[in-house]
Design goal:
The structure is a single chain. The radius of gyration is 16 Å and the shape is globular. The chain is α+β, with helices and mostly antiparallel strands. A hairpin with a 5-residue loop joins strand 7 and strand 8 (160-167). The protein is built from 4 helices and 8 strands. It has a single domain, classed as Cyclic Phosphodiesterase, Chain: A, CATH 3.90.1140.
Length: 172
């Protein structure tokens, strides 16, 4: 089964993202707007229990983090994906690193961590070029505190649902 780890922003930011995703993201109906903390990985039922326990330990030792979105950006020319750029900070980077090291299930990520909330993807080059300038001019300015994150699993229809929620608490 496929799993991933994400943080969901507030309803306010989700509503803003969904305003664009309805038009520009073919995966709109499959998953709520989110910031990926650990890329998709596969695990069986036994393994996922171990993964969930390891994630619980990470959550107990990490602080809530500020999610600050201040601009619209793109991964072009690599992919025609447009996103709200999340400004990295120490707490967010520390959480990502803890979930993506050699010792953790699934190991190191394939790509450098660029925290973001996707608002458009799988666009043709023409579509991308038509809307990126407009979205950059509109811009975005949003800040909130994230105090939880989620282990998700993929259903047979391709949609994602929560397997378990973890609260950031830093016990130490």
């Amino acid at each position: 089964m496929k799993y991933g780890v994400v943080a969901f922003p507030s309803k306010q930011l989700q509503d803003l993202a969904n305003g664009y995703r309805k038009r520009y993201d073919p995966r709109y109906s499959k998953i709520t707007p989110h910031m990926t903390l650990k890329e998709v990985f596969e695990a069986d039922e036994r393994e996922i229990r171990q993964v969930a326990e390891a994630i619980r330990k990470v959550a107990r030792n990490k602080k809530p983090f500020e999610l600050n979105v201040s601009k619209v950006s793109t991964f072009a020319p690599i992919t025609n994906t447009i996103y709200f750029k999340v400004n990295p900070n120490e707490e967010l980077s520390s959480l990502h690193d803890a979930l993506n090291n050699d010792d953790f299930f699934g190991g190191l990520p394939k790509y450098s961590f660029v925290p973001h909330v996707t608002i458009a993807q799988d666009l043709t080059s023409g579509e991308h070029d038509d809307i990126i300038g407009q979205l950059k001019m509109i811009g975005v300015d949003h800040t909130e505190t994230i105090d939880r994150f989620h282990l998700l699993y993929q259903l047979d229809d391709g949609s994602w649902t929560v397997y378990e929620t973890f609260h950031l608490q830093e016990d130490n």
